[in-house]
Amino acid sequence: MFSKEEIIKILSSNDDSILKTADEIRKQYVGDSIHLRGLIEFSNYCNRTCYYCGLRYENKNNQRYRLSPDEIIESAKLGKKLGLKTIVLQSGEDHYYSTDILCKIIEEIKKLDVAITLSIGEKTYNEYKAYKDAGADRYLLRIETTDKELYKKLHPNMSIDNRLECLHNLKSLGYETGTGCLVGLPEQTIESLADDILFFKEIDADMIGIGPFIPHPNTPLGNSNINLNKNFDLSIKVMALTRILLKDINIPATTAMETLNPNGQIIALQSGANVIMPNITNDECKDKYNIYPHKKNQIISDTINKIHSINRTVSNEKGFRNKTS
Ligand code: 5AD
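Above: inputs. Below: predicted complex with 5'-deoxyadenosine.
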């Protein structure tokens, strides 16, 4: 177990031997097969105004869309046909979909015998409970940063305490719970990234998604002076340390990593990652899901080729966490 000081030292140094260590631990604890999670981005409406995200309510340049329940279910059926064992339903925080409608969608998709992951933001305990009772298995809610000051600056009208409560509610309801952070935000320190990693360990997350921050021009952080290569390298290191600390969890090679580096996902898969989330949203919509510019959406066939090119295999299972301790 690394101390905070050790984590800071590793993140600050040029030595990247931890990537290899993370790869070995990945192999030992979760093996060589990679879980594919089919991502459906079903609405890009969002009533939040997070400073970094292109879906923010105040971005009037983004063309908005919503998939109907039938369209969502059809996309899930396509995913099933393509062999996917998990369907991820993601959207901005959009109140258009009532709890009843979401539960009906979940119930229909559940009939396909797939695992269901939700990534639809902060909701009440009762809403989380209703989705769980309807058949949802997992939930993704990144903490984004554990730095309280920075969190406050970047998330107007939101509270880190509520986000933490959401994560605890999800855990207590029995969801496999995923969180994660952005890496390389303006004013984010190495020390706070060390805190993020220790937080993942403390709450014993089942899944961790880590992505480099990529400035979006139509956001308050659009003009940030950011070294994208540095963000990429640092995000890989944060991910590798997360694998070393939380040995048996599921960690995706994220789309943001692939967006910054043409080899990004392969590097991630060789530095601790064991999951890829190919995008199965229809083409017209996925181009409008502009969290950040030039998002590289993953197509299943490319993903599978990539996996085979590094002598790894595609998992046949739903890919729940196999807790080892
Ligand atoms: N760069 C990288 N990742 C971003 N996200 C939102 N905006 C950006 C950005 N500009 C991430 C957040 C969110 C996830 C769905 O997308 O971490 O949780």
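The first helix runs from residue 4 to 12.
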